[in-house]
Fold:
Amino acid sequence: MNNIPNNSAAYIPSAQKKRSFWQNPKFKYGAAATGLTVAFVALVVVINVIFSALATNYNWFADMTTGQLYGITEASGMLLDPYRTKEDFKIRIIFCTDPDKLDAALESRLVHNTAKEFAKKYDFITIDYIDVVKYPALSDAYKTTTETNVKTTDVIVENGSDFRKFSLEAMYTFGKDSGKVFALNAEYKITAAILQMAGDRPIAYFTTGHGETVDGTTIYNLFYDAGFDTRMIDLSKEEMDSSAKVIVINNPRTDFLGSKDSVNEIAKVDNLLDNYGNLMVFVDATVKALPELEEFLSEWGIGFQRSLIRDYSNSLSIDGTELVAEYTREGLGSSLTKTLWSLETPPKAIVKYARPITLLFDSKDGRDTSVVLRTSSKGTAEALEFGAPATEPGKPGVYNLLTISRETRMVNNTPLYSYVMVGGTGSLCDDKYIGSPSYGNGDIIFSAMKAFGKETVPISISFKVLDDKALDITTAQANVWTGIIITLLPLCTLALGVVVYLRRRHL
Structure:
């Protein structure tokens, strides 16, 4: 007898019974897609962690800032590449605390990153760390005096027993008026220190004993940073080393001893120039007559006028004495200023409280003279006689502010030069004008240093303004990056979709 129920619709074969939630294909496909997505995100996170660790370890990054804030420029490469093959030349950049502590603050991290870039690019440069708090004895070798303390923020550039120690503040440039940090200067400082230890350092003497301003001045530090062995000398008591390259007379208040005196200081300066040395003289409008020095300079075609220059139309000060100078574009002087006036927006050269300088001849006895800086070619400047009332009108004209004279001698068919640079101001290298990218004063001094025979001056290394975070890329480069970003994301999405589709087909 057939036991099948009369209502056949109520019978459902076991194979067709409703599946549980966990067996539902939609759940399986969804779970697979979700799992794949989670796995992909996890993989991205893991790759990001690994890459970040490697980037931190090996200093991987692409620096697209205008000032190349996070790397080192080609200018350093041009100066340091010749030392790649120099035997027994090893540079250590030493930090006085742990790397983690360096990277904890932006100021020390930027300097640390710069050092790591040097070590990455040059085999002869390595980075070491000493903990001067835990092991204070390790810092003893880097104390210049018994009272000197080595701080945890100090940076030391060492070559064997020779070293240069810098404070963290020295790696930055400060605004003269605001006193705030506005630029990173670590690349310049490290490169200059390496160049100083790369070989024989030419001597630059700064005279004393005549009221000069020397120790701690910006011009003194500029010569030191440029690789010169800077020394102070009293010519009335001391003799110069025969290998000296430069002597600087920075705004003397009294005259030098001459042929009528028991000691002839002028003769010592003359001997340096005869030995292919060079001379810089800066004398402002407040200094009275210096007969011995002026007579010597006249032999090089340079003379002083006892006047004060004012230019109310081209001055940074209300009294017209902080002059905005014009760069010369001709003659020998143009070689010192061409890199500045050829720029689309040349930086200003400022000459403060200046006296006019006269060129006594153009060329004579192998000596050629040239202007470097002058007042406005529009003739808006005026020269007021020394000691005259400030209310009295001056004589209008175009006046020379900075000049240079060169003597050429042929030795074995090779020209050898001696230079005399004279400025009618004692403020050409004031901190205010050297520490700002708006002024070209420092570049002129560096150009003179190169002409004076120190070819390894790091003149082309500029400080890196911290406020300037703009990306320095062209429109074409921007379009390429945009195309990559726009294309990469859809391709990744498409690839993920294909993987999910193929996996679903096999479920």
